[in-house]
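Appendix C reproduces, verbatim, an entry submitted by the partner laboratory led by Prof. M.T., so that reviewers can inspect both the input and the predicted structure.
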Amino acid sequence: MKSDKIVLIAAITILLSVIALVSWQIVNMGRMTEPVKVSVIVNNSSLDRWTNFKEGLKQGEKDFDIRINLVSTSDIVSMANEKEIIEKEIANGAGALIVELFNSYNQTAYLENINNEVPIVLVSTDSSPEDVFYSVTSDNTSIGRTLAMELKRDLEGKPARVGILAGNQEQLSMFQRLSGFRKEIEGGRIEIVWQISGHDNSGVVAKMMDYQKEKHAEYCIALGNTETEKAIEYYNVFGGTFEGAVYGVGCSEEAVYYLDNGLIRKLIVPDEYDMGYKCALSIAKRISYITEADKHIDTAFKVIDGDSLYNPENQTLIFPEAQ
């Protein structure tokens, strides 16, 4: 009888030890597993316009236990170029991707094939048709409409001739911004006298000079950060040919500097820090197969002028890493 009791106690001890070991393994499984490598592919990743986005990604990396790899890229010039970068990252062990699409209209089938194995979140722009992938982006139609409303408010009913730097219209975000601007000025006294579109920015300043000689625009509408910087470059090279300066979208230090000195009249600043952070959150949920993850996440933007530039709230938006 005594030996049976000893056997029972030994069995219970072994069972408790096994339970303790399994519990420890469950609790520490996340700590023992390497964080998933998330490759972030955006156009020309070294540009200053990505500074706040990177800060948001870094904070998300800490909060959601993922490993962010911001891929070093120059100008992405074609779909084939972007596909090559994506495939190289997957081959090098990327377990998830955050991608700024070069072309929103012709990548869907290709990315769907990848998405079966590697979770993808789109940033800054969406795919067409929409609702195919998860995305984090501003309301780009509203950005375009807001630019037009700010110009109309400043004109106070006076007529104006504008030139538009429309950027890569193969990106849905830029297409939506242009559409929003055009819709808002319909039936009014604002005339678009020229428009420059395309992903190649190398000849933009020369084209602006030619167009300004042929059809002079009093105002320049720049739909993205690169476009805003090209308008600044033109102005600095060829002098004050825009009576009312530039109405643009941007977040780089250069754009903010020229807002402060008056060349840029109104600047729409997307919350790029929040965009980076929410990209990290969205991809972490995709990695963990959390079904209640939002399919599309909108990020805010603000209109800033010279008078409101130094408001504390606006300074936090522009320089979040300094706060």
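Residues 20-32 have pLDDT under 50 and may be disordered. Additional entries are available on request from the coordinating office.
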